[in-house]
TrEMBL record:
Family, similarity comment: Belongs to the HupJ family.
Gene of this entry: hybE
Species: Pseudomonas veronii
InterPro entries, A to Z: NiFe-hyd_HybE (IPR023994), NiFe-hyd_HybE_sf (IPR038530)
Record protein name field: [NiFe]-hydrogenase assembly chaperone HybE
Signal peptide: none
Length: 167
């Protein structure tokens, strides 16, 4: 299946990514010294999301592997997908993150933002999964608004006081 086939939704797209990277883990990456053997390929929290800067819709989730943890963005409008190797920024949860366009031979295009690589700081799959869930929770929360400062009245301005405070 290609990632651009959206009829099955985020769960199917996550399965497609996992199958693709599991194949890489079993072939090209097998036996390499920078793999954390305690980890497996897993998709975490893939669901519909809006990218804040332009209200673009798509699917956001985290992909864990024995060699990396990446935030994955699958824009709904495939015309906006970054070209392979090109970088671009998206805003989630008030954070501006840089993504790089990628193209899996058999799955099509996606965008990724590196969170961790290599993965030796994770003792096991649960620790990696918990970190991925925390990252997604932060990025899916609405950014906190700065507290509004009270307006300064003309009199307050002249006398160095803020309106609403002790006069």
């Amino acid at each position: 299946m290609n990632l651009s086939e959206r009829q099955d939704g985020p769960a199917q797209q996550a399965q497609t990514l996992c199958a693709h990277f599991q194949g890489i883990a079993e072939t090209r990456m097998r036996g390499l010294p920078f793999l954390n053997q305690q980890l497996a390929v897993e998709a975490v929290g893939f669901s519909a999301q809006i990218a804040g800067e332009n209200a673009a819709s798509g699917v956001l989730g985290v992909l864990i592997s024995p060699w990396f943890m990446n935030l994955i963005w699958l824009p709904e409008n495939r015309d906006t997908l970054l070209a392979q190797g090109a970088s671009g920024e998206h805003q989630f949860g008030g954070q501006c993150l840089t993504f790089i366009g990628a193209d899996g031979e058999d799955i099509g295009g996606y965008e990724s933002c590196s969170l961790f690589s290599p993965m030796f700081e994770f003792a096991d799959q649960d620790a990696a999964r918990q970190t991925a869930e925390q990252v997604l929770a932060l990025l899916r929360d609405a950014p906190e608004r700065a507290p509004e400062r009270p307006a300064i009245s003309r009199r307050g301005l002249l006398f160095g006081r803020v309106s609403g405070g002790a006069q």
